[in-house]
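1st attempt posting a full record on here, be nice pls
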Amino acid sequence: MSSERGSVSLVAVAIIVMLMVIAMGAADVARVLAASARAQAAADAAALAAAQELAFPRGRQPADVAGDYAAANGATLEACECAVGSTEATVSVSVDAGPMLLVGGSRVVIARARAVVDDAGG
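the predicted structure (as tokens):
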């Protein structure tokens, strides 16, 4: 009977290790989801800002305005298809999700958004 005394300890250790792995995976997923939401909000804001600059020019390049709004929302502007004289702005931004616990390394989330200037008066 005394030969089985340590078996409960091994099962407990295995369960604790499994729970730690699950918790680390859940933390990684939560980190990526939060970065994804932040990236989409930044992309939306940048696209709307660029479209506003296209509709009501204030003397700045739409891409510069989009970059400012992306940075203000914690993102980096990757691309802006928003030529002066056009009626739509399409932007792509990236957000660093930070270091991952389970898989190691860092992940970058990319989001895209499009805003169109509607000429309702004409």
